[in-house]
Amino acid sequence: MEMFWLVPLIPGASALILAVFGRWLPKKYVSWQACLSVFASFLISLVSFFGLLKLTPESLPVVKTLFRWILAGRFSADFALQLDSLSSVMTLVVSGVGFLIHVYSVGYMAHDKGYKRYFTYLNLFTFAMLILVMGANLVLMFVGWEGVGLCSYLLIGFWFEKHSAASAGKKAFIVNRIGDAAFILGIFFLFLHVGSGDFRVINEAIEAGHIAPALATLVALLLFAGATGKSAQIPLYIWLPDAMEGPTPVSALIHAATMVTAGVYMVARMNLLFTLSGTASQVVAIVGALTAIFAATMALTQNDIKRVLAYSTISQIGYMFIGCGVGAYAAGMFHLYTHAFFKSLLFLAAGSVMHALSGELDMRKMGGLRKYLPLTYPTFLIGAIAIAGVPFLSGFFSKDAILTRAFAQGQYFIWALGIMGAVLTAFYMFRLIFLTFFGEERLEPHAKEHLHESPPLMTIPLVILAFFSIVAGYVGLPVVLGEKANFFNRFLEPVIHPGHEAHLSISTEWLLILISVAVALCGIYIASVFYLKSPQTPHRLVARFPKAYKLLYNKYYVDEIYNAAFVNPLVNGSRLVYDNFDLKVIDGTINGTAATTGFAGKVLGFLQSGLVKDYALGILLGVVIFLGYLLF
Amino acid sequence: MIPVSYFFILSILLFVLGIIAFFIKRDLITMFMAVEIMLNAANLAFIALAKAAGSPAGQVIVFFVITVAAAEAAVGLAIIMLVFRQKKSIKAEDMRLMKG
After folding, report:
1. Measured between alpha carbons, how far is A60 from A58 in angstroms, rounded to an integer?
2. Any chain A CB within 8 A of the CB of B80?
3. What ipTM score was computed for the predicted complex, to two decimals?
4. Closest partner CB to A620 (pick from B19, B95, B96)
5. Which residue in chain B has the smallest CA separation from A603?
6. What's the predicted TM-score (pTM) here?
């Protein structure tokens, strides 16, 4: 328990060693060190978690100040790590899922020439992410926030010799900068009015009523703008689908399970502030709901297996923000926690499919893989059932907790959007399953030659994640089954104040659960009709509504609109300035100065003849003139 | 007793002689000797003034000038020798590496 501050530092130290000495270390040693450092973090997190259960809520959070980091006038920030129930959940998820993905990567990246670089980045990411969730003040959290952004950039562009990967990395980095600018402004405003970035001091100031609601709204909206960048919400979600250019385990770890949920963690961490501002909470809920449904519709028409999952991630994070926006922070965190398991499972399973098919991503060139991939198929199926919201698997409990709470708060519009999103989720996930594992084989001949199940290093993490995708939900059973049933909410209570909860009658709650189950099964049924029973239906639909299909297939042309509205004007403007100001004014000034100096040198150069006598004559003339001046 | 003005006239004559020799001669050694003559012209003026004014200050300055001239002769002759080894000539107009 006292050792909890080592949790981020072990992967950090490992990353440092790999970065400095990596090139001289044998490959096997690199794999062991990278995996074991994260496993050590996980063990310490687990021990700390059980230590935390014994503590009384009053003694929380446990803070360990390592050193004073910045001191400048009134501004000060410590390098301090804290442990409370919220960061404990996050450290368990990050180090636990992170460890499995490290192990998977050993198999997946085995033949890559950037093997050591890959594990250096992956360890560095784990370090930054753990700093993010354990930082005891906003400044240190921001360090982690930027650190994960950097690692995300490095890993998206891991195969930088591919042009698309390099530009996807840049896109992710730049889009995140926009959100981060707002985020850091929010931090400054808080510093200005509270005088500290420490979470405890901020929460005390809020509880004492030192923060006016208007200020709370401003700060909360700025912080949330940062979250929309990091967590890929409208309007800044555009980088996440492109981020799939990175290696698949990276997509699983960074762009599904951990980093993209940092925004949700941040909002949950600042829940007092967001509760103070009804406007900001409403904005969070609406953005979340719109993203949930908007991204789900885009996932319907994609043919790239990883892009479907990427849009699905955007949509699921939308659900988490719905939870935060309607005051159900614990439910939002719960969805974050279950989503980490089933989404990383889906990504890793997709990676296993790609591995089996020599890197094929297009679902139109798959089909009938069920019998070739005896372990990947069932685990993928479990992940899909979990995300679709079928009862008794983890995704059902968490999604239901969010939607029930939204309904209870009277946010019927948001609830309806969430339900529609749930139908779409079930539909596109099973479209993916049916296209990939069922139906006729549409494989390319060269892919079929090497068709094989992945090695155990890759399938064992899949099985473990599948297990957790099933059971993870049982720590947060619906309230209908009794107030005490939701262990997860009670555990988070010291950090997340439940607030005034509008209670629904038992029959209403059961009805809501029934509706969720019905829409999930309905989505699966439609998918099975479309892609199993009569595979012509989708084509007929496309032929019937070509415009709607084109709109969805081109992702509502959002990228094109952003390009036309922001990117191109910026590029053209820069070119204009470059051509006219840089080339003409700045370069002209510098070249002009050089030319003038050179000309002056040429003119004066004839005075320097190199002959001693000429110089002596000069001296003599000088003396004569000087004497003449003195005497006359 | 010879008046001080006689010494001055002799000193000026020597100095002008030095200047003329410096400008009309081409080889470095003669030019060097011309410089020495100019120095000694100045020395003569100092000595004459010291004697007339009865102060030793002028004589002290002359000692300094003689010392510096000796050092200068050593360094100057060494340079001329090295130049000769390089160029096989001690003509002043052969040396114009510093032409701008």
Report:
1. 5
2. no
3. 0.84
4. B19
5. B100
6. 0.81
